[in-house]
Amino acid sequence: MFETLGRVVREALEAFGQAGSLAAEAGRSSRDLKTWGANFSQQARALGVNSLPIGILIALFTGVVLALLASYSFTGAVPRYLVGTLVQKTVMMELAPVLTGLALAGRVGANIAAELGTMKVTEQVDALETLGYDPVAYLVVPRILAGILMFPIVVGAAMFVGLGAGWAASLGLLDMTTSEFLKGARLFFDGFDVRYGLVKSASFGFAVTLLGCTNGLRAKGGAQGVGSSATQAVVQSAVMILVLDAFWAVVWLLGRAA
Amino acid sequence: MKQRSNDWIVGATIIVVMVGIVFSTLFLQQAEFGKKPELVTAHFRDVGGVQVGNAVVIRGVVAGRVKQIALAPNDWVLISMELNEGTLMPADPVVLVQAATLFGEWQAIITSRTAVPVNREVETQLAEVDGAPEGSLRGAVLPDIAQLTTVAGGIAGNIASVSERVRTAFNDSAARELRRSIRDFSILSRDLAAAVKVQSRNLDSLAVSARLSFADVASSANALQRTMSRVDSATAQGEVQEILRQSRQASQNLRNATERFESLSRSLVSAEANLRGAIGKADTILARVERGQGSLGLLVNDPSLYRNSDSLLVDLRKLVVDFRSDPKKYINVRVF
């Protein structure tokens, strides 16, 4: 039992250590614009644009459910326009970044880990090195940069759609008026809400792509190793998203409240 | 070709989403482009819970936002408000900040000085802010909902205290006493009703007796009238009138005599009164003499004084004799 526990802890620390090492290496390789620039738009499209439907779908249902949940919770003396407040705050600051981040952790993290893992086990990475390419600059940097840039784009679209879905649900299902919903949405709105959500989602993008690349480049053996890398990438990314969510809340929200 | 397609799609997505985010943010912030907001400032001593971004309301219509809250010299708090372009201010405007909802949302109301609700605290604040710098509106804080609920809580506490006292005072024993009192009062009421009934019956019989008595008196009066008629017919010859005339004369004489006697009696009374007064005074003087008061009292009661007076008279007599015998001994006249 102790052996198993020790092995798990060691492997987790090794993974985060390799992730840190890879991040530092990617930072250094980012200067090689010629190498990663050619792949950036492809990765941005694959990670971001192609992830928009899933992000929007999640936000669509989240907005509707939030409006109904708020209406269910706000009874008695609580005015109905606070449905708009709840939808705006929770969608923009929490649910759009986190739920979209978790969804993208599954989609993007697994995709990256599987792709790079396959390249690793089929020695394509070694071939790149043989051809004189820096595999980090060629494979990792464009993915990480695409994640940092496109996660906020997907999350921004999710915010927009989630708020719209909440508004539509309030009008169609809760018999509220547009002015009521907007009054609540505007009541405690602050530009900081948007900034907070977007910055948080950028950090999620960085974590998900970095962990996907790390696990992919660590893949060993055959298809089983690739699958294991993809699974680990998803799990670690999901955990990291939650950790980063708490980190930003403590660092930014607490500091702002003080 | 594929590279260019990727670039175009990614770029377009980024631009569209960014535009959407910016538009949504501005829409929620109610930002207005192309309009120059008017800046209005107001001085307060305290601004309660108002925050930047709270609504500025004129006659119930949101006309702007609180832009800035800052401490100013001389213990002032300065609130800067952005009003929509073309907003008309009320006459003699003042700014009242108050809680807008139960959830901590505040608002600043710009209203006319004459429309300020009657509240001593608000009046005091506005009077104090009269000394604020020129060009700035005067402001006051309306009582917070929390204050009102605190007061209401106090009232509720007092009511609870009173209720508790009533409950303590009106215990089982008090209830029993009250029930007994009510029962006693019921018995008393029944007795009173019986007494009234008896007295009513007595009054009825008394009225009957009185009616009978009045009938007897009436019949007696009739009998007397008949008797007097017979007497009057018996004395119709004039003897009675003569007797009556002489009786009147005698009565007059007797009245005169009585009057004289009364006058004499009054004189006697006056003389008696004078005599009593004189006797009283003499008695007083004699009492003082007897007590040795005054010269006469001393003379009467002190033998040495009598003796000295007697010796003085002897010496005086000797002196007169000596003066007659030798006047020059006592009188000496000199010119120079």
Textual characterization of the structure:
The complex is a heterodimer of chains A (258) and B (336). By secondary structure, chain A is mostly helical. Chain A is built from nine helices and no strands. Chain A has helices at residues 2-29, 33-47, 52-73, 82-121, 124-130, 135-172, 178-187, 191-217, 223-257. In chain A, helix 1 (2-29) crosses helix 8 (191-217) and helix 3 (52-73) packs antiparallel against helix 4 (82-121). The longest helix of chain A has 40 residues, at 82-121. By secondary structure, chain B is an alpha/beta fold. Chain B is 62% helix and 15% strand. Chain B has seven helices and seven strands, in the order H-E-E-E-E-E-E-H-E-H-H-H-H-H. Chain B has helices at 2-28, 120-129, 145-169, 172-234, 239-290, 294-301, 303-325, and strands spanning 38-44, 55-58, 61-72, 76-83, 93-99, 106-112, 137-141. In chain B, strands 1-4-3-2-6-5-7 form a seven-stranded mixed β-barrel. In chain B, strand 2 and strand 3 form a beta hairpin. The N and C termini of chain B lie far apart (175 Å). Classes of the chains: A mainly alpha (258), B alpha/beta (336). At the A-B interface, helix 2, helix 6, helix 7 and helix 8 of A face helix 1 of B.
Summarize the structure.
With 258 residues, chain A is mostly helical.
Write down the secondary-structure element order of chain A: HHHHHHHHH
Structural class of chain A: mainly alpha
Number of strands of chain B: 7
Overall residue-averaged pLDDT value of chain B = 78
Shape verdict of chain A: elongated
Strand content of chain B: 5-15%
Main sheet properties of chain B: 7 strands, mixed, barrel
Tally of individual helices of chain B? 7
Distance between the termini of chain B: 175 Å
Task: Sketch the topology of chain B as an H/E string, one letter per element.
Answer: HEEEEEEHEHHHHH
The value of Rg of chain A in angstroms is 21 Å
Strand content of chain A: under 5%
Low-confidence stretches of chain B: none
Poorly predicted sequence stretches spanning 5 or more consecutive residues of chain A: none
What share of residues of chain B is helical? 55-70%
Q: Helix content range of the residues of chain A, please?
A: over 70%
**How would a crystallographer describe the biggest sheet of chain A?**
none
The helix-and-strand class of chain B reads alpha/beta
In total, the number of strands of chain A is 0
Categorize the overall geometry of chain B. elongated
Please compute the radius of gyration of chain B using only Cα atoms: 60 Å
